[in-house]
Amino acid sequence: MTHWWRLFLGFLLCVPLLLSAQIFSWKNPNFPNDSIPADSIISAKMEKDFFTRDTLDFIRLKNKILIDEAVLVKNDRKKILGDLNAKGSFVRGISFGNNQGSSVQSAMDMQITGKLSQDVSVIASISDHNLPIQADGYTQSLEEFDRIFVQLNIKKKNILRAGHLDLVDDKSYFTKFQRRSLGLQFQTEMGEENKTLLNISAGIARSEFHRIRFQGIEGNQGPYRLTGKNGENFITIISGSEQVFIDGILMKRGENLDYTINYNTGEITFTSFRPIFRQNFITISYNYTNRNYNRYLFTADIEHRRNQFQSGIKWFYETDNKSAPLALHLSPEDKKTLAQAGNNTELMYSDSAEITEYDVNKILYKRVFIGNDFYYEHSNDDSETLYQVAFTHFGEGKGDYNLAQTLSNGRVFVFVGANAGAYRAVRKLPAPQSTQILAYHAQYHWNKGKIGTDIVYSAYDANLFSSKDAEQNSGYATRVFGNHQWEKHRWKATTAFEYQRISSRFRILDRINSVEFARDFNLAQEFNQKTQNRLIFHFMNTWNTQSFANYQLNFLHEDGGYKGLKNDIDFRWKKEKSQTTGKISFLNTQSEIEKTEFLRAHITQHFHTQWGHSSVGASMEKNMRKYIHNNTFDPSSFGWKELFVQHKIGDSVRTKLLAKAYFRDNDSIRENQLINLHKIIGTQIESHLIRNKNTTLNALLHYRKFFDQHETQVVPQQDYLIGNLLYHQQLWKGGMRLQAFYELGNGQEAQREFQYLRVADGKGIYKWTDYNGDGIQQLDEFEIAEYADLAQYIRIYTNAIQYLPSNKNKTQFSLFLNPATLFNSENKFLKRFQLNLSLNSQNAYFKNNRFWVMNPFEKNKEQILKNQTLLAALQFHTNEISGWNGVYRFTDNNHILNANFSQEARASKTHLLTIGYWFHKDFRIDWENTATQITNASEVLSNRNFLLHNIETKPKLTYKLSSAFQSELSGSWKHRNRKNGQERLKTLDITGTLQWESKKASLRASFSWIKNDFTGNSFSLVGNQMLDGLKTGVNKVWTVFFQHPINSFIMLNMNYEGRNSGEKTIHIGSMQLKASF
Predict the structure, then answer these.
(1) What residues does 927 pair with on adjacent strands?
(2) With 80 as the cut, is the pLDDT of residue 931 above it?
């Protein structure tokens, strides 16, 4: 965040302080006719120093301020802020200790709306977080999460925006773009009848736009990986920037809609509401983070409208500052490499090895020489010359290294020979780039039509370090278009034409044509850097506003010999209770390499009856691509035919039932012939069976069965079933509430690898203990930290490239029972009971030859992911007569993690019984009993294989000394036994707690005396887990927490923790201020 943004942020932060300011009215007797205003606002906290610069620049005075005849008056919020409304929170905190360094936490969320004056209104949203990244998530970088947006509306026609901007131009033809920047934007409208519109912006763009297109995998819902424009496999997507199209139709994000996306890993998964087929073509555009260079973005748009004529000029300028790289380090040799590469990306690689000192937190290598050549070998020998090396994936047989399977904390690569591996010890050098677009457009309208033109110039420099290939930077595009309309009685006709020319060097920002343009013309991509000439003729006819017939002719010519002629017809004929719709498209192309013919057709007949809506139809595609030089078909040639029948009950708002059956033939090239590869029988059912106040029942099912015709046998691994069931029920006036969701599907699971990353003290989740004493971090030496001063690491997933095909199921279930309400009973004893039951289960199984796994509790060796939690609780509450109460809770957790070339399974079962009794309102006793079984099994990490049986009993006395003071005394006896080892633990824990609470403050202090009697190796992962991070013998643990509201919206929290295990006493302190307004 730049300096001026910090000043701007500081100004906004003063708003809460003004809310609690005090106004002093004063009169100086020495200046009876003083013209200075009589009221001044002075901060309420007069004893505190406020500095905006380094305190060394100031001279401290004994008397901070002089006030003559000071009279304290009441704070008038409306007088200070006018019509502004502010809400949000502001947090600042610090933690420190004698076993850790100090760390600072901050967070802010603020929303401001209202009027600054009669002509100026403001909308502002500000958030700033420097909290650590997801504790066990997939985030690939440590960054501050901040967002600032301020908008001023001035006199209705002027808008000034500052902060994070979403810049979108989707109305232009050649200059469509979507960007996010941090900067300023100004919009204004001038004139009344003849209007001039101005829109300008300037800012810093820290994201890159990219679009990918791929064909769906039959029955594979994902996740599918998104990549960068230079082939980067590991990118972070800007939240909300994506647009997802399937066969040209825009999808919606959401678990109950079409897809979900993990922005941190750049992976998209389609829900069971949107099945993925092989014939689906998926296009996704998105912005992803770019930390290579500071990138500046300037846009300007001026448009003038006068009567029937309008024209405008657009300017777009996006450039990297090659002198100011961000997270990128370029050596003089790297810059020289880029200067010599020109626009050739294949030459933009450099040696990635850098000499470094030994660091236990890094994976390091040494050089091993073979004659005059050398390779890199993993080493932890601090007496060697060590290198930190980055490896780039090139594909199998294109590299010299492979990823090794080791227990090291990080990815280790091993040399396997020249061109025998998939990785190279080089890094890709991203070149700074610059794009500039200047466009002019004009249109003239008359009653029955319009005519217009677009003229665009582009300048794109793919490598600002190099002057080579500069002649390739400039390009242009032009377009002329028009239409005219005729009407007679109920018939309306429109003719339209368009001609466009795009030079080979023209730079397209996002896209020009429809999402399906490349597929429509059998092109590799929308624009292949070849000069394009395109002519379009369109004839549209409409009758009675309900029936229509349209014809469109497209001719496309590319330099290099490509010519494509495409004919499209679409129509609808509607009668009272029937409707016929259809689309037919035929493409014929020829180039120097191949000839193609692409026929597509879809015709549907709809019937409306008293029993609902019925449809029958047929669809087909046949795309034949033949090479000219040898008269053979391209293997990508294909064909398919589909017949379907469908019935729907319900209206356009509420579908009670949709049933569809279809028969499909898939054809493919075999031995230079298009033959029938397999037949498919499919069934689709979608139903909202019940939807009322107390009951909801929805179901979705899609089943496809494949019959292989080439081998004359059924291929079960291609069959699949996908669907979901949603059921909500409320009965007996809420005495029973049930919610259930079940989902069945197919997809793929990533073969993930994770590593532990060192972060600031107190900001981590995990700790590292060198159990084997070799000074090297191994994966089996990391575990969750019991205390904040030990939490120095987080776990991040290093994105994997390979995926395993899988069958998946997901179950969510919850049941609530209130027996008294259920049986409509006034029995006071029955009213004291409540029952809760919940299940959350998510499973994935290696697909093999199975096409579904329905049972969420199934256990087999093919399972690669499991997250399952079962909870059952029975509660017995107190009443005004009896002080008895109790809780029984059973918890069953099962987890399977497939990562780092191995599988680890963890399961725990816990029985908890708590009984309590109130002797009177100030004195009660509780007795808590717990029995737990913990099982952990790892395929590779042997020290993580254990079976623990834990038993604990804990009585507790609670006495309320007064309305403000409360005391607690508890004693706990624990017995922990490792069934597959020698470790045994007996623990006696005596804890006393004192709590004081008033209207303005609260204080809680506790002290625990813990004696551990341990048998076995305490300096081990299992021993540490059994001891809860403490030591054998006597341990002392104490905490103090203090909370005090400074005023109506500022809260002070102070926390102190200490512990002693017979050696060094550990002290940890933290303080936090939170302002809520």
Answers:
(1) 915, 955
(2) yes
